[in-house]
Amino acid sequence: MTDEELIDIARQYRKHSYSPYSRFKVGAAVLTAGGKIYGGCNIENSSYGLTVCAERTAIFKAVSEGEREFEALAVIAGTEGPCSPCGACRQVMADFRIPRIIMANLRGEVKTASLAELLPFAFGL
Ligand code: THU
After folding, report:
1. Sheet containing 100-105: which strands, arranged edge to edge?
2. 55 CB within 6 A, ligand 1
3. Catalytic positions, please?
């Protein structure tokens, strides 16, 4: 599984985005250590604070299927530069030790960072 393939799956899931309030579509795909992929999109709610980001949708789908070991997560949106995950999603990535984050946009721009780079001094129990 190449980074480009994972980005492409995230791009497909972005099409499922339920974002009538922001009109900002996001897609994500997480790759497990066993080579499985779980995709997700952002899902908004009329009570705005209940919105779930694409990254957390993908991670929670994987975890709810019993996955615990991850290799990478790709996220894509129509941003100016590669789409950078929000702080809440970074903490979820930290708890599930997702080591590599691949950020992309619809123009084909890609940036890869380690979780330590995205969330230095992460909280953990
Ligand atoms: N969003 C994501 O899905 N992922 C991010 O990393 C940033 C924000 C979503 C939440 C909301 O539906 C919309 O983008 C605008 O904030």
Report:
1. 37-41, 26-32, 70-77, 100-105, 110-114
2. yes
3. 55
